[in-house]
Amino acid sequence: MAYDKIIPIRQRMDNCLGYVLNEEKNSLDHALTYAENPDKAHQLVTGINCQAATAYSEMQVTKRRWDKTGGILGYHIIHSYAPGEVTPEEAHAAGVEFARRLLGNSYEAVISTHLDREHLHCHIVFNSVSFVDGRKYRSDFQSYFGTLRETSNAVSRDRGLSVIEVTTGQGKHYAEWEAERTGKETVRGLIRRDIDAAIRESFTFESFLAALRRQGYSIKYGPNVKHTAICPPGGQRFFRLSGMGERYTEAAIRERLAAIRRGDREDLPVQIIEPPKRYTIRRGYLTQMPRKKVRGFRALYVSYLYLLNIRRPKRKQIPFSIRAEVSKLRRYQRQFRLLQEYRIDNSAQFSMLTDALQAQIDGLTEQRKERYQEKREGREVTAEIQSINQELRRVRSKLKLCEQIKVDMSHIQTQMEEYQTNIRREQEERHQRKSHAATDKGRPDRHFDPVR
Q: Total domain count for the chain?
């Protein structure tokens, strides 16, 4: 099964080609499973309608000839396969065939198969301008599902591989499809849950909209509005009801409300909650070390992850802006694990960690240069180079995680401050209501005197 993602290149096409043609990623002598086979030590790179080594200059000549040097410079397709589905040679052959069928004899393209991940994937970079007639390639919804996706499936069928069936009607963003496939929560899922809750307490469509407004939603609805749309509290965009699924269109919601008025019970999906695990405590004297309370950065992440894991808050209403963050739960968990691994609680410790990781990367890079020099001199150091590359990937991933923490930390702090402000406001309002109720209860009744 091949999954395809197309990315427009709007600047520095040479950088994209440089990444795609990186020998460390597409050369079979860098793949662990092929390290012992010298007959397969070659690069998996193919040029279509151009030479791979001079692809960038040839594409630039084409652009200047047709006077189309601006706009989208080219396109980058990532053609991925499931782990273990194909060998490197099969993946590359299928990627080349896919590119030939898709682009024909009109566009210059370079296909390079990368082996540095568990899933093999081809990178296809092609010129946006045809060298035959100067026409620019058009990438839109129709071209993806009607041409690119169908071509990829046709190649997979011809080679006996599984395919991703093209669905009719409205497409779905890959992030949402992946989240639903893996059981993770999505923003649309949260909105559907709020819609279901509003329907259960309503009888008419107007009362349904009022229930959504009470939840903090903004609503576009009326005779001059073509599509009814709602925006969650704190959200930046509106979502059409027609795009939320068959059960959430305006007509479907009106029908569900009519069924409630008739007395019909709506069967909603039931969330199965597993019973808590039981533990047996053996008698005897157990030595228990006192736990150290986390502080600083780690305490902030613990509190935020706790809020993201709450499914049914009993007392405190969690804002939608925080509930929508549940789609990033695993990302924040990875960040917390890194902070927990190195016991990072403040900015000084975090800065020391990033400096240490960068120094480690610089040292490994120097070691790899030395090994490459030894390899050019004829020594057998392939295993050492592979070991250094693996360690580099591990350290670089940690440094990249640190960069994400820098960005996400301020966002999490803002979210928690808003949440604490809302909690304090609710407590003050509850205290004021109790004070007013106590004052009214102790005040004597005043009767109306018509004479006075």
A: 3
